[in-house]
Amino acid sequence: GRRGYLLPADVLESFLLAGVSVMDIGRLFGVSERTVHRRMAEYSMRVSELFCNTEEDELDGVVLKILSYHPNTGYKMILGYLNARGIHIQRRRVQEAMYRVDQQGILMHTFQLCTVRRRRYSVPAPNSLWHIDGNHKLIRCQIVVHGGIDGFSRLIAYLTAATNNRATTVLDSFLEAVNTYGVPARVRSDKGGENVLVAHFMVSTRGQNRNYHITGRSAHNQRYLNLTVIDCSYSVSLSYCRR
Questions:
Q1: Where do the Integrase catalytic domain residues begin and end (predicted)?
Q2: Dihedral through CA 114, CA 19, CA 77, CA 140, nearest 10?
Q3: Would you say 233 and 135 are in contact if contact means Cβ atoms under 8 Å apart?
Q4: pLDDT by residue (tens digit) across 9-52?
Q5: pLDDT (tens digit, 9 = 90+) per residue, 71-115?
Q6: Is 2 helix (H, G, I), strand (E, B) or coil?
Q7: Which of 40, 138, 183, 197 could bridge 171 with an S-S bond, Cβ 3.0-4.6 Å?
Q8: Which CATH number is 130-236 given?
């Protein structure tokens, strides 16, 4: 008959200990859940038997000791500490232990989370608002990616790679997009100095009566953040390196 799909016991065990579900393991290896369950049966492997039967008091003591050295640690980090010590515990049990030994710390950590509140986005028409920003993740390679996106259509007006983050470089990329799509009604960027010339261009072109250039934190530049920066930056950087 057809040869069975190779799924080594150690690989399967490592995924299960990491908390990966049988369904996700099947997706990763391109097999059905039934195939994964069959391999587990062949290896006499049960999820419940892979984890340590540590008593609650003992687990609470270990978790409390970790938190005493690292008070702001979340449950994922604690899982990592425990796994490194050879103590394999279900995520649910670790969360319960943290709640028992450090309930106040969990509440404080929850209140300290600085989540960004998103408002409902509304732009009346194309070219009403462009969002511009830069990506500096490749700055060590002397590559800075500059991009601009139309808020209404999500059209990528420009996406370029440069060796610097000067205002003249950003303006050149912006003007190339303007020559193609026209001058936007307004532009939104962060308060970085690289956007000064774009702001000057918008004010000199549109006037000072309306907020033709809006500034704010990059975290709130929602349309640009929603752009697939990683994929686009990779493509632009790759073509840049081939020049």
A1: 120-194
A2: -70
A3: yes
A4: 888 888 887 778 888 888 888 888 898 888 888 888 887 777 78
A5: 777 878 888 888 888 888 888 888 888 888 887 776 666 655 555
A6: coil
A7: 197
A8: 3.30.420.10
Tokens of 131: 């969002």
d(CA 48, CA 135): 45
Q: Does residue 171 contact residue 194 with C-beta atoms inside 8 Å?
A: no
Rounded to whole angstroms, what are the CA distances from 105 to 59, 86, 93? 18, 26, 17
Residue whose tokens read 């540590």: 54
Nearest residue to 30 via CA among 5, 55, 48 = 5
Query: Rounded CA gap, 173 and 166, in Å?
Result: 11
CB of 170 closer than 8 Å to CB of 134: yes
Quick check: helix, strand or coil at residue 177? helix
Q: And the tokens for 150? A: 């139309």
Count CA atoms closer than 13 A to 135's CA, side-chain side.
22
- pTM for this structure? 0.48
Alpha helices in the chain (DSSP H): 9-17, 22-29, 33-42, 47-50, 56-69, 75-84, 91-101, 103-112, 167-181, 196-206, 222-226, 229-241
